[in-house]
Every structure is written in structure tokens, then in C-alpha cells.
């Protein structure tokens, strides 16, 4: 039986248990779990939701063919993934053009996102040692953002200060040059595109797992029962007595 | 400039190259397309670039591309125009001036979906601005088109439909037309749609139902789900949706007193809005205005908000957001609403030391903030306890307030007048701070304003200034105001101004006996003006104030009493009945009371000329009129009638 089934049944059972306090053996528990009905279609949708939100295009397509679960137009996932990839590779300009082709409203209505993309452009210019260009860019493109919106000024100053350091990788704001910064920006763009397409920007699966852990914590006050402690294996462990 | 077709160009962040306009006008579609994309990609998200391209004259050049037959050109042109219009009024103006509007509309029926979407998006951007052309809902084809937009599966279409409603639906006729055409049903369906559809629908519904009880009822009865769908959306995960949903519910409850009145929903809304105020962005900013609309003039909601510790939260916000003008304005206005009726709120406000923050706002750069600070002060200064304790009459507050009477912005002046009106009622006889810093002079100046609201508020403040003032103060006021001006204000074209002027005179003659003399200054012109206005009084309130003035004067000596008689019963009359008879017959019990009281003072038995005055009153039919009022429905009136009749009896010669 798949781990997924187990997790979901566990969750459903705990919710039912919440009213009585006692000790339940693994045997009893497993018996109760077996009585919980979960629909396969619901699980398939959860999986598809995960694949689509995270952008696993090929996997999503294959899953559709094999399970018959529907999903949104894959072309939009592909477009979105192209944008995300461009940012992750540091091709911010390319990413901006792609976003604008996908939906010109996104950057026009998300000043914070636009600022972060411009900021990333500046970071890439500095990373490539193009100091002159970076200075010009900072003056012409980033400074106006700060003027238009005061809340960007602090971050702007941090980013521009990169230009002041000889050894950029060792300076106080050096983390801006990390790949993690690119990933952060990429994530932000991804979320904005998903929202504009009216999809939830977070997949459902993590919420489900969080709910399980929370529900187990709640039930701990009232009963001793088999826990799932390792989410990746979903093994039922004996109740502590 | 790289000539390759790859759009990634390292120099595209440079200033618009001078040949851009040329390339936009090129007959070569490839060149034109690249130029359009360049403009589009530079301006999206970038207000500064939008402005500079605008100045270059790029908009007409871009709009011209809408004549083309190629999809790609149309898409890029529409997208660029939409971006110019996005949140940027100068851009909207330029797009409309370039004549692009009809061309964008025609894109909506183009065979290529992408073109259609691009057109719809652009139009939606335009409709988010006040500058968009007004949509005439009363024309049948227009309504049909709107309905088709709202029924579409396509998001840009429904978005456009919603923005048209939000922009153009203003009068109740328009609201009713939309309801009768079945728009409500479509909007209710959209409540189950995507994020932008839900938001658009909520805002449209609020627009249609605003101040229109019929529309609100129609919405609620349209479907069993209608109201509950909106209530559910107050729990949505997106803050903006929660805000719009609460706004919608508030519109319904304010417009239609039979819906959403239970304590549950009231509490829910209060807590929701308090939570939304925490949002650091646009949502938090708008939340304060929505909160105002919930609690304004509603004491029960103000109480709930107080219990939910709204004042603590708002005080914190005052500290954190003083440099965000619109937000600051919103917070000040909510505080004004919260403290408008409840002393508990005002006390809490003052105990949190929020007064200093509000006083600082009086000198803010932004006019709206200054006005809001005044409005807030007006509410808080309604606290008689604190007013008497002098918390509002120190220089720290009075001086900046008085300065605002000079403010270049009229709304600030009017708001300042409102606050000053309260503050000068300080129950001490000095009021010197105010007068010393030039406040009196300014009030008098403003009472001569062309703007009737300004005159009214200035006079109101002057009236309050005169309340319980000592003689020195009263003389100072009259000297500054001048008798001729006061008389002309008594005869002001606006009835409400007349009322305040008369009330001012009433305050002037109130007090010690000498005060009565003020009404006789400069050959009785004030008294004559009063007599004249009472002849032609258009509102009961004028009569009430005027009669109290005359009543006060009639409590003076013989000379004073005779002067009042002269006003009541002019020598030359040809059977015209005195205005006082009209007043005695009035439906307004306060007016009847004021009139009788004046008669009582005139016929006070111990005064020497009383008997001759009674005869005159009898001849004018006033005594017989009073006799008919023995069983007046108002207790106040009845008691005074009895007193008056008692006094008449003392002079009776046996005849009726």
C-alpha cells in the first residue's frame, strides 16, 4: 500500500479519535485505519497538483496519460518553467520578457517583484564584473524604483553597496551573490505567475502533512497511539506506553 | 543595437534610442514588431520609463500599430498601450487622446484569441482609471455587450466587465438598470470563479448596491447562496479578497437595515478589519477606509471596536505609518469615527497619549492628512471633561490649528473650522490664547467667504467662541466682526448661516443685563435685521434662535422691552398678522416654547409698561392665540401658556 494512503488514513483516523483518551495498540489502530475510505481520484488530484505546481511538466503529462487525471493546459506550465529557469540561470532580462509575453499585467501590478527582478539584474552585472554597466543600470533603473516607492530604499542601498567592495564574495552583503538569491527571486516569479493564473501558489501536499503532524500533537494530549514520525516512510510506530 | 532577432539585448536598459519613433513607424513589420516589443518591455512595471516615453510622443506611434492586420503587431501594441494605462493617469489620457479606444474595442471581436485577450486586458487597465469614457448602461446594445462579457469563460473578459461596472455605475438609475438586466446573477456566479473574478465581482456588487436598498434586497433574494458566498469570502486566504468581501457586506448592512444586523456578523467584521489593518501594503491602507465605513455614526459598532482594543492598534499604526500619507489619513479618519460619540474612546485615546501624534499631523505636508487630523481633533474635543480641563486650549494645539485657517486647501480650512468650533467652547471666560494668535481675525475673515460652507463653519465657531464669554471678550468679538457684517449675516442667503448668526447674537445678549445692549449697537441695525428675518423665516430653527434673542432682550428694562414690541408689532400694519402668531401656530414645539417665553418676559407684571404692552398684544390677536393653546400637546408649552395667561389676567379688565 502506498505511503500516501497510509498518511491520509492516519490523518482521518486521528480526527475521529480526538474525543476519547486511551491507549491504542498498533493492531487496533491498523484495524481502524483499514476502515477509513479514501478515494483514489482525490489522491491522484493531489499528486497532479504537486507535479503541476512544482513544474514537473513531463512527469505531469505522463501521469495524466497513465492515470487519466486532468490538469491545466501544460503549455502554461512550460512557459512558467521557462521563466523560472531563466532566473535560476541568471538571465533576468530574458525572464522579464517571457513574463511579459505570458501576462503583461504581472510585473505592472507587482512592484515588489519587479524591483527584485531589477535587483537581480544588477547583481548579475556585478557578478560578471561589468562595473560600468552596473553603475549605469543602478542609476537609471534601480534608483527610480527607490524614488517611486520608499520601502525599497533599504534593499536598494544594500544591493548598490556591493559596488563599493573590491572583493565582493567576502563583503557583508555577499549573500546577495549566492545562488540562493537567484532561487529566491525565481520562486517569487513562479508564485506571481501561478497567482495570476489563479492557481494556488503552494501545492496541497505539504499542507496535508503539516495537518497530520499538528493533529498528532493535538491527539497526544488525549491518547497514546501509533504515530507516523518519519514522513518519508510513513511507518507506524508503536505507541509509547 | 543588436540586429538579431533574439530579444535579449544588453543595452535595452538604456534610454530610449532616438530612432525608436522612426522604427515604430516603419513599414517593415519585423522592425515595427521589434520596436513595439522594446517599448513594451521597457515600460512594464517602470513608471519612470512610462513618463519618459510619453514625453517622447511614443503613445500615438504605438497606437497607430492597431491599424495593422498582423496578430503579433496587434498583441504587442495592445499590451504596450495597456501598460501605459496601468495605474498611470497621464498614460490613460495619452492613450485616449491617441484615439486608441475604439480600435481596442474592435480587437474584442478579432478571430485570434490572443489578440482578443490583449485587447480586453488593455481596456480593463483603462477602465481602472477615472479618465475612462463613461459607459452608458442605459443603451440596450451596451448592456448586452456587458452581459456577454460577464457570461464569458474568459478571464480578461469578465475582468473587463467588472471594471466597467466599477468605473461607470454611479447613479441609482444605473444601479437599478444593471439589476433588472440580470447582472447580479452573473456576478454571483463569478463569486465562485478564479481569484480575479471573485475580487472583481465583489467590488462590482458593492458598487451596484451602494446606497440602494432595492438593489441590496434584490441581491440577497437573488439566490439562497448569494449572501453566504460573500460571507464565506471573508475567510478567504487572500487578504484583498477578505477586504473586498467585508466591504461588500458593509455596503449591504449600511444600505439595508434588515440584513446583517446580528451581533455575530458585527463582531466578525470588526475583528476582520482590525486584522486586515496589519497588512503592510495596499490592503492595510484601504482597510482603514473600509473600517470607517463600518463604524461611522454607529455607536454599537464603535463600542465593539473599543472592546476589541482598536484604539491600541490604531495608536501603534499612527506611530508606524506617519510617513505614508494615504494610510496616515485613513488611520486618523478611523480614530475620528471611533471617538465621535463615545467618551470611553476619547478617554482611552487621550490616555494613550495619541493627541501629540495627531497634533503633529496638523503640520503634515499632505493636505488630506492635515484635514484628517483636524477631523480627528474635532471628535476628540467633544469630550467636555477634557475640554474643561484645558487639554485642547494650549498653544501647542491652538496655534497650528489657527494657522490652518490660512491653508491653501479649502477642505483643510473647513476641517480646521470644525475643530476650532469645539475648542473655543472652553468654559473659561478668557479664550485669550485663541484670540492672541489671530484666531478671531481669521474666523471673521472666513465668515465673509464666498463659499457657504466656509461661512457657516466660521460663524459656528464664532458662536461657540461667544458662548459664556465675558464682556471684554464679547466686545472684542463684536469689534472685529462689526455690527454691519453681523446684520448682513443674519440676512444671509443661506438659511443655515442665518441660524448661526442669530445664535451668535443670542450668546452675545445672554448673561448680565448689560449684554442686552449689544443688540442695540449702531442704531439698532442688528435688532432690525432680526425683525426682518423673522418676518420671512424659512426654517423653524431661524424662528427659534430669533425668538430666544428677542426673549433675552425682553428680559431687560422698559426700553428694551418696548424695542422688542416694536419688532413684534410694527406701527404700520394693515392687518398682516405678526410673525409671532405664525410661530405660536407652528408644528414645532420648540418654536412655540421660544415664542411664549418672549411674551412672558414682555408682560412681566412688575414692570411698569406691562399693561400697555398687554393691550397692544391683545389688539394684535396674540393673546387670543395664546388662549387657544391651553391644552398644547407639549408640556413645556402648556406650562408657559399657563404662566402667560396668569400674567394677562393681572391686567384684565374683565373682557376676553
UniProtKB/TrEMBL annotation, chain A:
Signal peptide: none annotated. It comes from the Eukaryota. It comes from Juglans regia (English walnut). Pfam families: CTLH, LisH. This is Protein GID8 homolog isoform X2. Residues 76-133 form the CTLH domain. The gene is LOC108982782.
TrEMBL record, chain B:
Its main location: cytoplasm. Pfam families: Arm (PF00514). InterPro entries: ARM-like, ARM-type_fold, Armadillo, ARMC8/Vid28. Gene3D superfamilies: Leucine-rich Repeat Variant. GO terms for cellular component: cytoplasm; GID complex; nucleus. The keyword Nucleus applies. GO terms for biological process: proteasome-mediated ubiquitin-dependent protein catabolic process. It comes from the Eukaryota. Keywords: Cytoplasm, Nucleus, Repeat. It is found in: Cytoplasm; Nucleus. This is Armadillo repeat-containing protein 8. It comes from Juglans regia (English walnut). The gene is LOC108998716.
